[in-house]
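Record 1 of the preview.
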Amino acid sequence: MKPVFISDCEGPISKNDNAFEITEHFVPKGDRLFTLISNYDDVLADVTRKSGYSAGSTLKLILPFLKAYGVTDKQIESFSASNIILIANSKATLELVRTLASAFIVSTSYEHYIRALCKALDFPFANTYCTRLSLDRYLIEAEEISLLRRIAAQIAQMPMIAIPKTAKSIEDFSAKDQETLAQLDDIFWTLIPQMSIGKIFAEVKTIGGGQKAEAIQDVAEKLDADLSDVMYVGDSITDVEAFEVVRNNGGLTVSFNGNSYAVKNAELAVLSENNSITAVIAELFFKHGKKKTLQILEDWSIKALRRNGVSTPLLERPVAMHSSCLPKVKIVTAQNMEALVKESSEFRKKVRGEAIGRLG
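->
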């Protein structure tokens, strides 16, 4: 039986944050609207741990505003297909990985984007888990359109939420941020649910947080595979539960240009502009298992990789794996974690841009 490779999409495979880009494109001041709601998402998922809430639900919370500005499924499909930016060598990496393992993509992204991405990668859409959405089937009244546009403008003008590193409750936030959070609570959990468009919150299921962990378990059950044979690659807060379920069951977890949430919950931190490194780690893991792979990666060099059977094509790819510019790969420890968080977070912004790189 083949081992299993599972990866998040945006970050480890592409540079996009598709939902951010859609909101920025179709909604006035959409970049700020999305960023503030994304910060609010992080608070609900990681600080207050709102009951029934999953990281990545920003993709649900912005839907009423997309609808209010007339965004259609066709527009999302067209925009997504025209704006895919892949991490270098992603297609070749997935092709190689699929010769070694059963490969899946588990992503919070809308299905419109994942379908377009799969076409670009020649990857089977059937091997993906993503946020299913048919925006066209939701009706919205004229009065709601006007109100939602005013609310979107209001949110875009709110002060950006600063999340204290040690925050455990709302009381740990500044008075100004507590006021902002209270306003957002009222908007998303009282005002919008009373609208006809409000049912979209109940009906759209984002694949983030716990749903990613469930998807991994579903893959393992369908393939009759052991979670110890799973390698999972992620980069953000939506991957925390996925990292936990794989790591706790003996599989290998990799943060690829991850933010603080990813680095702190993965066993390996990778900083790279090229996806060939993912294929290298996958080949080592699938040939040697987790324990030996981690031992090999402690001696991170071309010689060590050749000595342990990494395929020649991977090592000969231009730039990607040349000995003078090997990407950074580090085993995450309590001692180096904070330094890796800082370095990876900054590198992430370099690769994906400042606006996308700072999102949770």
